[in-house]
Write a structure and sequence with these properties.
heterodimer; A: alpha+beta; six-stranded antiparallel beta sheet; 37% strand; B: alpha/beta; Rossmann fold; four-stranded parallel beta sheet; 5 strands
Chain lengths: 143, 117
Amino acid sequence: MVDALQEAHRILVERGVFVDARPDSGVSARVRAKSARGTVIGTIGTQRLTKMDDTMSDRAVREVLRRRLFRSRRRGRLWHAIPFEDSAELNDYLRDHLRFSRRVHWLVPPARRGTPLFVERAVRFEILEKRSNDELTSARRRD
Amino acid sequence: MRCFRAQVNVTVSSGRTFPGGLGFLRPPAEIELGAYGLDLRGLRVADIGAGEGRLALGAARAAASVLAVDPDRGALARGRVEARRQGISNVKFSEGAAQSLRLPDASFDVVIFSWTL
């Protein structure tokens, strides 16, 4: 992963911008009923191995920041809603999913769930800026 | 670089749903690029791990040029078809892997890894 970030650094101009965006496995996806802004009726976690992968990706980003290849300019999160007709369609979707847990953790009994369903997942992003060669040289001198 | 817009609210919600096509499984390009708060006008953008070019095609509407890189030839081919369908001519699709990009040094203003790392 650090290799990929080094490649991104190489092809960027000085002070060029690098964007890293990924699903945020630190936050459970929310299942909402009836509309994308409806009541939260369940949550969906992330598979353990995927969480480990995400931790490694986070470490890789921290590593290139530590090496002063980039500086962090901004972080944020956006939410993305995916619609499903009903729980059967959602379960089909989760069955083969590479990131999400296989099951919804329902917060309400079946009779109170309603349809359609919306899975609202968090996507985190970080905007990095490539440091100029002058900055990198002076930072290394200071070290 | 001048591509930074004024500070944006870092938490945004699509607040919309997008049924139809595989694209609805990821945020629409305009929502995701809007969240980044970057002004891509006139810039050279590389979308690494671009898949079918969901984000690359969105970025191409503002950027001077976009290169979409992905190891999946099939996805790249679908992206080319979609670019033609949308009449977008400033995006190129190229096979490659993020770890070893066959691209010259210092050739892009913006590099995007979306769902890539």
